[in-house]
Every structure is written in C-alpha cells, then in structure tokens.
Amino acid sequence: MIEMHDVWKVYDNGVEALRGINVKIDRGEFVYIVGPSGAGKSTFIKLMYREEKPTHGVVLINGVNVKRVRDWKIPHVRRKIGVVFQDFKLLNMTAYDNVAFALEAIETPRRKIRPRVEEVLELVGLSDRMFAYPSQLSGGEQQRVAIARAIVNNPSFLIADEPTGNLDPENSWDIMYLLEEINKRGTTIVMATHNKEIVNTLRQRVIAIEQGIIVRDEEGGEYGYED
Ligand code: ADP
Ligand code: ADP
Description:
Layout: E1 2-10, E2 16-25, E3 30-34, H1 41-48, E4 56-61, E5 64-65, H2 74-78, E6 81-85, H3 95-104, H4 110-123, H5 139-151, E7 157-161, H6 169-184, E8 188-192, H7 196-201, E9 205-210, E10 213-218
Parallel strand pairs: 3-8, 3-9, 6-7, 7-8
Antiparallel strand pairs: 1-2, 1-4, 4-5, 9-10
Helix pairs in contact: 3-4, 3-5, 4-5, 5-6
This protein binds adenosine-5'-diphosphate (2 copies).
One adenosine-5'-diphosphate binds at residues 11, 13, 15, 17, 35, 37-43.
Subunit structure: Homodimer. Forms a membrane-associated complex with FtsX.
Protein name: Cell division ATP-binding protein FtsE
Subcellular location: Cell membrane
C-alpha cells in the first residue's frame, strides 16, 4: 500500500510542486494520475520511488516511511517498486542484458537469472528479440523491455511516468493491455498520463492533480481535460 499524509514538495527554487497531498493506494489497484503540465504529476510519482523526498509530510510504502529509511535500506524498498519512463531509459546492451542486469544488481543466484529473464521477456512478447539492442528495437519494443526490467523482481508496485508518451496509438494500446495483464497478476500500477483516449476507455481510478493539489479522485473516472 502507498500512503501520503499532508505531503508537500517545495523545490530549492521555491516552487511548491505539491501542496498538502493526502492519498491511499491499495494493493492491486490501477490508478491514473492526470492533470495539466506542471501540475505536479511527475513530482508525485518521484516521491513514490524516492527520486525526491517530501519537504513536509509522510510517504509510506508498505508501511515504510521513505524519508526515514537509511541509505543502505533503499535498495530493499526500491526492489518492491518497478519504474517505467516515457523515454524508456534502457542501457546500451541487449534486451536480455537490460533485464538480467536488474537481477544481477540484487545478487540473484546465477542459475536463476536466465530462466527468469526468458520468462519475463516472453510475458512482454519479446522472446524472439532477446538479443537485440535498443537501437534495433521499435519504440513499442523498447518500452516492453523497460517493462520487463521493471517487473523482473516481482515488485509490488509498478510506477509509470507517461509510459505511452513516445508511442504511436497502436503501440500505446499494446503497452496498456500489457499493463492491464500485469495488474491482473497482482501488481499495483500508478501511471501518470496525458492519454485521454486510454483513460476514457480502459476505466480505472483517476486522480487529478492541479497546481499541486488533488482536485478529483474517482473510481472509473474520466480524463477530464481537452489536451
Ligand atoms: P507535471 O509532471 O505535472 O508536469 P512536475 O511535477 O514535473 O509536473 O512539476 C511541478 C512543478 O514543479 C512545475 O512548476 C515544475 O517546473 C517544478 N519542478 C519540477 N521538478 C523540479 C525541480 N527539480 N526543481 C525545481 N522545480 C521543479
Ligand atoms: P517529466 O517529463 O518527467 O515531467 P520534466 O521535463 O518535467 O520531466 O523534467 C525533466 C527533469 O528536469 C526532471 O528531472 C525534473 O525534476 C527536472 N525539472 C523539471 N522542471 C524543473 C525546473 N523548473 N527546475 C529544475 N529542474 C526541473
């Protein structure tokens, strides 16, 4: 479960990106984060994977206060959270190695790596592209690799910042069906998006943020903006 209690984020330049956020996201939920550019969506998401710390207030991930965790414990918390970005952020090595790297980083026994990488690449539909480099893959395929990497450790949460932002509509829908499948298998998904079509079609909980404040939180809600 993810909880935020009166969370404020004030950047060094004085910008109040979040101003008193209270929210609870339960295990197994699928949540869209929507709102205008500059509203605070990325900041909200960065607090969940501890890319940023709150200036005030408390962020709890499975009951752990992310601000208080000592540095040596962060990998332990992060392992429960997979992250996917708009620009994929793959390393310049094969799809297989990008995914295996995430397992090696947490000292998975060697004999367990290959079967798990193959399993997760199959789940995302890339069994036949395992040894391709990012430059040899389409945007949709690169995002699949990124998703495989994000879920290979069986995280409780998958956090996605505009995962379809660089994809054409067809690839965007394919990525969404994949995220739905991952959610059905038990992973909680929190996804910032500007994709009106997707939000209005694949109905889920919608949290709208404007000027750092949650202005709407609806189960099966609409996108609600024109862009
Ligand atoms: P969104 O994702 O909704 O576009 P952001 O969370 O990226 O919103 O940004 C919210 C506000 O915080 C914006 O005014 C943005 O310019 C500002 N901001 C974001 N990151 C930083 C940063 N690292 N330093 C200073 N200001 C930032
Ligand atoms: P995103 O697509 O994730 O919203 P942005 O374009 O808002 O990314 O920001 C890119 C990077 O620049 C992020 O790491 C963000 O924290 C930082 N950033 C965003 N706005 C500002 C700002 N006003 N001042 C300094 N850094 C910023």
